[in-house]
Design goal:
With 426 residues, this protein is α/β, with parallel strands linked by helices. The chain has three domains: 179 residues, FAD/NAD(P)-binding domain, CATH 3.50.50.60; 97 residues, FAD/NAD(P)-binding domain (3-Layer(bba) Sandwich); 110 residues, Enolase-like, domain 1 (2-Layer Sandwich), CATH 3.30.390. The protein is 28% helix and 23% strand. The chain has twelve helices and 22 strands. The chain has a five-stranded parallel sheet with strand order 3-2-1-7-15. The longest helix has 15 residues. The radius of gyration is 23 Å and the shape is globular. Bound molecules: flavin-adenine dinucleotide (FAD). The site of flavin-adenine dinucleotide has 33 residues, from α1, α2 and α8.
Length: 426
């Protein structure tokens, strides 16, 4: 019995490792087209920035580790060009055919292409793979560019702007909408904008096609597109988001074929509908479930609430669930409360922290939230995310027994203060 995994990063290796744990006798083969496996793409901006000195530090495990410690065969430079599902075979670029009994598709995503004049020039980069980061780093070193443009104010664009600015470049951030992080959230955008301006990043909102040619360096970060082509050709169905449709066991419409990570969609627990929110946190969980079930287990993946956090020049910016605008689009009647409080007691150096909560005015159910500030952001957003997972109502959040001691928090935690405010409005 052979489990074949296509893709050797977060989802694929989580699947392989979990399958091995459940079935020591299973033959497990991972095919990865790139030269490296098991690296943390999340660390790439910090490598570009210079905080991480060697790209190799981002690699967690090697193929040798998987062979020796896990009895899993990992082949790099092995690109699958098609899947012949009736024969249960993956076809490699060199014509080799690899048989499988169970298959996990973990092919990830790629940066979305933009139709901007000059996008193919040598000074234009994306920041998606280890190779991308090394090429960008080499360009910074060898060409000493002075002026950079970053296209897209999603989290990768924000992190790229930060990394380039810290390399001493003059940076312009160009965004085709009027908001950051695809939330349609004016206050969150204002906070990020103030931070960027403070660190002298120039901003262009509602701008579609920057003059890439007039900059020394450009980074395109306009979103991701799931790698689904070989799956689709094999008969795997996509969902409404354009990513692979899976059930809660991560199985596709083809029996014995699973999909996980950035190539697949996930159930959004607030809207109750599938969503495409590609993140490493989700990829690892999905991969684990896919691997367990491919090895004969019965695991399920519950879904996501869209929790993410990004560092913008030392300010944590975190989101979960729906913004007011997103909630309205999904048919809710949202109300929101936003407060600014202290991350911990002032006499312990507490910093301002802003918490916004969004709830449905009809049901009083929490729909989402955002948090930003220089410290204490991750703890607060995780409380809100947990509340969303548990479909909590505003009055339940007000009653949460959250930790307090002066070095860590305030006696009324900012999340509780926001919930009290919101309670007056729903
Ligand atoms: P990938 O990591 O894309 O891996 C898929 C692999 O499949 C690739 O190595 C690819 O080469 C291989 N492959 C594709 N097609 C084939 C084929 N036909 N044959 C063989 N191999 C194939 N997430 C967070 O949660 N927090 C963060 O802070 C964060 N920061 C990020 C910062 C950056 C700059 C980037 C780029 C991503 C960040 N992410 C973050 C997202 C996270 O890295 C991804 O969600 C995660 O890597 C997805 O894992 P995956 O295994 O699904 O896909």
């Amino acid at each position: 019995m052979r489990l074949l995994v296509i893709g050797g990063v977060a989802a694929g290796l989580s699947a392989a490792a979990r399958a091995r744990r459940l079935d020591p006798g299973l033959e497990i083969v991972v095919l990865e087209k790139g030269p490296a496996i098991s690296y943390g793409a999340c660390g790439l901006p910090y490598y570009v920035e210079g905080r991480i000195r060697r790209a190799g530090e981002l690699i967690v495990y090697t193929p040798e580790y998987f062979r020796k410690a896990r009895n899993i065969t990992v082949r790099t430079g092995a690109r699958v060009i098609s899947i012949a599902h009736p024969r249960r075979e993956a076809v490699l670029e060199n014509g080799e055919r690899v048989h499988y009994d169970r298959l996990v598709i973990a092919t990830g995503a790629r940066p979305r292409r933009v139709d901007i004049p000059g996008a193919g020039q040598p000074h234009v980069f994306t920041l998606h793979t280890l190779d991308d980061a090394e090429r960008l780093k080499a360009y910074l070193r060898e060409k000493q560019p002075k002026r950079a443009v970053v296209v897209g104010a999603g989290y990768i664009g924000l992190e790229a702007a930060d990394a380039l600015r810290r390399n001493g470049l003059a940076v312009t951030l160009v965004e085709q909408s009027a908001h950051v992080l695809h939330r349609g959230d004016a206050e969150l955008t204002k906070a990020v904008q103030e931070r960027l301006e403070r660190f002298r990043v120039a901003l262009c909102w509602n701008a579609r096609a920057p003059e890439i040619g007039s900059y020394d360096l450009a980074v395109l970060a306009v979103g991701l597109q799931p790698n689904v082509e070989i799956a689709v050709e094999a008969g795997v169905e996509l969902g409404r988001t354009g990513a692979i449709r899976v059930d809660e066991r991560m199985e596709t419409n083809l029996s014995g074929v699973y999909a996980a990570g950035d190539c697949a969609e996930a159930l959004h627990l607030v809207t109750g509908r599938p969503a495409y929110i590609p993140l490493g946190t989700t990829a690892n969980k999905m991969g684990r479930v896919a691997g367990a079930n491919a090895a004969g287990g019965r695991d399920r993946f519950g879904g996501v609430v869209g929790t993410a956090i990004v560092n913008v020049f030392g300010m944590g910016v975190a989101i979960t669930g729906l913004s007011v605008e997103q909630a309205r689009r999904e048919g809710f009647a949202p109300v929101s409360a936003r407060i600014t409080a202290r991350s911990r007691q002032s006499y312990f150096g507490g910093r301002p922290i802003t918490v916004e909560l969004v709830a449905d005015s009809g049901t009083r159910r929490l729909l989402g939230g955002s948090v930003w500030g220089e410290e204490g952001v991750e703890g607060r957003i995780n409380v809100i995310a947990t509340a969303l997972h548990n479909r909590m109502r505003v009055e339940d959040i007000e009653q949460l027994d959250l930790a307090y001691a002066p070095p860590f928090a305030t006696v009324w935690d900012p999340v509780l203060i926001a919930a009290q405010q919101l309670s007056k409005m729903v």
